[in-house]
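sry for the spam today, last one i promise. struct tokens for design, 451 residues
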């Protein structure tokens, strides 16, 4: 029986009913004059050992606790394997400090951009920050396999070496066979990660896997399937996504519509452009040009099929959910429909007066610019906000946050994203993000040129 178990037994039975040996620790020599003390027959009065049995028990518990916390002597020790030499140089001091700031909570959602930029420049994360990086990436949901892939690439040989020492970081060395096995027998997160990685590597194979698995999947997994198809998206994916628009689940339809909104030349984009032209018109009047908004009267069956489902969101400020319908139509309409239809660039369109609908248009166009990755529109939208901030919709702060993280980071250069006095908190945060991204990428560029 172990010494710790002796302590537990004596404590449970009581020192008056059982004997207890003098406290000792395995591997350490015991005093020669310290015999075991049999209780209750031991004559404490006549013994040279004067400890109280209860005190002796507590001493033993304390000694064993310290010993357990401090560790034990290894029975066998093998030297650690040596990490391979990494051919990629580590980033310099400035990018390393920036990575440390990201890992300690400053704009953590920009971590993937830092890793991607470092990998693109042939640099790797510094060895001292790898444990914090791998721990951070491990804690994020497995729904973000791209972040895990970037961390593995930026970590290089040293990250793979660390993964061999800590099973919590095994995602660094996860290979294709393990991924295929995860798809067949893994949980929802593992299947999601495998599908996302497959789409990034081979969009056609990912599309075939989705098609083969669609009928057996539940609504939540079908939403995951559709989201994964946003990676490597092409017109070859349109038939599968159009089929998803007929899904009985509203969330599946909504997600399919959002993915199709980012596909140039899609049939959904043409349908939305037709609706949008009926909602938004240029009016030439005595007071000049202005935008006239005529919201759709209701969500008909065709609009619901294209993902516009009012029941999925809270009621908006305009009667009958008109704000929601206008925003959703704009968010799914190709932005070329406006520049070509109005014959004006994005900046001029944004400057046309639209009355109380201005924040609604700004919200819808921002979502469209993000989905379509249109840098011209994103730049015009950010410039509009910085020079003449309009009132926002309830969702504007989140839309602006995404816009600032995807627009050209060059807008954060000193003297460009200056803004005005009295800007709202979301706009001030957007300016800080722009400057952080500009400095972050400039440090990596300078580091690359210095190398």
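last one done:
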């Amino acid at each position: 029986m172990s010494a710790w178990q002796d302590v537990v037994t004596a404590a449970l039975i009581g020192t008056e009913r059982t004997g207890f040996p003098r406290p000792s620790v395995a591997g350490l020599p015991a005093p020669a004059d310290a015999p075991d003390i049999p209780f209750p027959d031991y004559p404490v009065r006549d013994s040279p050992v004067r400890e109280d049995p209860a005190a002796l028990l507590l001493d033993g518990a304390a000694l064993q606790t310290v010993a357990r916390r401090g560790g034990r002597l290894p029975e066998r020790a093998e030297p650690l394997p040596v990490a391979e030499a990494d051919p990629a140089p580590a980033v310099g001091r400035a990018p390393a400090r920036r990575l440390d700031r990201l890992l300690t909570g400053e704009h953590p959602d920009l971590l993937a951009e830092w890793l991607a930029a470092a990998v693109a420049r042939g640099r790797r994360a510094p060895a001292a920050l790898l444990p914090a990086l791998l721990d951070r990436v491990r804690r994020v949901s497995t729904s973000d396999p791209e972040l895990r892939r970037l961390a593995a690439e930026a970590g290089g040989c040293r990250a793979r070496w660390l993964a061999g020492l800590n099973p919590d970081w095994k995602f660094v060395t996860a290979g294709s066979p393990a991924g295929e096995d995860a798809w067949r027998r893994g949980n929802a997160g593992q299947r999601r990660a495998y599908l996302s990685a497959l789409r990034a590597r081979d969009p056609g194979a990912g599309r075939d896997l989705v098609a083969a698995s669609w009928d057996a999947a539940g609504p939540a997994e079908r939403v995951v399937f559709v989201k994964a198809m946003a990676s490597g998206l092409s017109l070859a994916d349109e038939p599968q996504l159009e089929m998803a628009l007929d899904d009985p689940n509203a969330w599946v339809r909504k997600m399919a519509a959002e993915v199709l909104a980012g596909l140039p030349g899609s049939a959904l984009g043409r349908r939305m452009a037709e609706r949008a032209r009926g909602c938004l018109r240029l009016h030439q009047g005595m007071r000049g040009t202005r935008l006239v908004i005529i919201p759709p009267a209701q969500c008909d069956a065709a609009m619901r099929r294209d993902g516009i489902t009012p029941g999925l969101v809270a009621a908006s400020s305009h009667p009958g959910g008109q704000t929601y319908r206008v925003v959703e139509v704009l968010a799914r309409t190709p932005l070329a429909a406006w520049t070509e239809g109005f014959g004006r660039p994005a900046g001029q369109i944004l400057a046309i007066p639209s009355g109380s609908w201005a924040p609604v248009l700004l919200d819808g166009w921002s979502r469209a610019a993000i989905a379509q990755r249109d840098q011209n529109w994103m730049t015009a939208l950010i410039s509009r906000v910085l020079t003449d901030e309009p009132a926002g919709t309830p969702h504007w702060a989140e839309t602006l946050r995404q816009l600032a993280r995807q627009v050209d980071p060059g807008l954060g250069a000193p003297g460009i994203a200056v803004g005005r006095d009295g800007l709202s908190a979301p706009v001030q945060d957007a300016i800080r993000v722009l400057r952080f991204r500009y400095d972050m990428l400039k440090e990596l560029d300078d580091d690359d040129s210095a190398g």
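Confidence is low (pLDDT under 50) at residues 33-50, 314-320. ok im logging off now
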